[in-house]
Amino acid sequence: MPTKAVAVRLALVGGLPTPAELFVTDVPRRGHGQLLDDLAALVLAPKTFLPVKWSNRVRLLGKHAIAWIAIGHEPTDDVTLYDREHIVELELLRGTKLLGNLLDSAPLDRTRVIDHLNGAGAFVRLWTADAHYLVNTQQIVAVTELGGEAR
């Protein structure tokens, strides 16, 4: 199947963020929002390794070694409607902090941040003012729910 390289920033556990490329199936998409969904599906898939290109080399990375992946927003991003927005600060191992929004449409009996995090799988999606993050839940030390806007 033909693939498309997608430019991202990637941080390995204990490492600094670096530009990289991930590969998704090259299919017609209705916008950048659908590309974000496809990237999330890629990292949430049960496969253990992920092909990543950086420094002009393709490496097979163990997903457990990825702290987070970020892709920038596009001015024309599709708007997906969610029932709830949780403005949070994620504290990761090694002291990195990310401030953003967890958005979900969970059932009415699961409206808390803890419900969202416990149901997220290996990676949780976080929207910030400048990027969409896929954060490895095994790297999250603490989550603080904040009031006000995260933007």
Whole-number radius of gyration? 15 Å
Quick one: overall form?
globular
Mean pLDDT: 85
Number of helices: 2
Q: Strands across the major sheet, in which order? A: 4-3-2-1-5-9-8
* Main sheet characteristics: 7 strands, antiparallel
SS class: mainly beta
Helical percent range?
10-25%
Quote the distance from N terminus to C terminus: 38 Å
The number of distinct β-strands equals: 10
Low-confidence stretches: none
Q: What fraction strand? A: over 45%
**What order do the SSEs take from the amino end to the carboxyl end, as H and E?**
EEHEEEEEHEEE
Give an overview of the whole structure.
- The protein is mostly beta strands.
- Helix content is 13%, strand content 47%.
- It is built from two helices and ten strands; from the N terminus they run ββαβββββαβββ.
- A seven-stranded antiparallel β-sheet has the order 4-3-2-1-5-9-8, covered by helices on one side. Strands 7-6-10 form a three-stranded antiparallel β-sheet, with no helix packed on it.
- The chain is globular.
- The N and C termini lie far apart (38 Å).
